[in-house]
Predict the 3D structure of the following.
Amino acid sequence: MERVKIIECPRDAMQGIHDFIPTDKKINHLIKLLKVGFDTIDSGSFVSPKIIPQMADTAELMEAVKDIPHSSKLSVIIASEGGAERALRHSNVDLLGFPFSLSEQFQEDNTHKSIEQSFESIKNILKMIQDTDKELLVYFSMAFGNPYGDPWSVDLVKDWAVRFSDIGVTRINLSDTTSMAHPEDVEELFKTLIPKYPEIEFGAHFHSEYHHWFPKVDAAYRNGCRRFDGAIKGFGGCPMAKNDLVGNTATEKLITYANSVNADHGLDLMAFESAYNSAMEVMG
């Protein structure tokens, strides 16, 4: 039986919500998520609270759950060496996620750096984590096109995969930041990149309206992708992108898909029901 990794992204679900969610509610929700058995939980963000005020309490959140037994990796978003330094203070942070945009405009809007400056930051962060147990996860934001008119092609994505392979990155998520992906582009990228770079785990991070998730997820799975990001009920999206919060692929849909292709997701569905109810209370 094939194994599918399902990653739950409460950080992505919460970050665009205007009203601040109390920290104790975030902690209780994360504790429920830790009981489900997700491969990874995208749980916080060490970027400036001026940019993402909703995640200003990430350090407190990490400290609150550090002694709770669980099998999931904990991931946080960073966008600079300073963010990496803050993340490295927490022993229970496993993955540092860097949003690297293939759109120059979006990289400037999102991190106030050019693409090349961001690439240099990533090289510095790799050095920072070299002697630690942390790993770097690079998100290829705008991996399937962008609304800014910046150049995009599947060859551009492939070219950047070469550069990141050359510096030793071993985790890359192809991100459909504004829900522009065509299934044929999803198919082309995963079927090409996965066999070419066996040392890199390529994942899918698809923003999607609630009922439009299937073609992209199916194209990715049929072409070798076994790592999928989701958020319960499809909450969230990128508040920095030039579009309304289009939403994430719903985690419950990913579970349904895994069951339909007879893939093992390894999740405790009773615990997931509790986490689902919690998400509806916190974010619904």
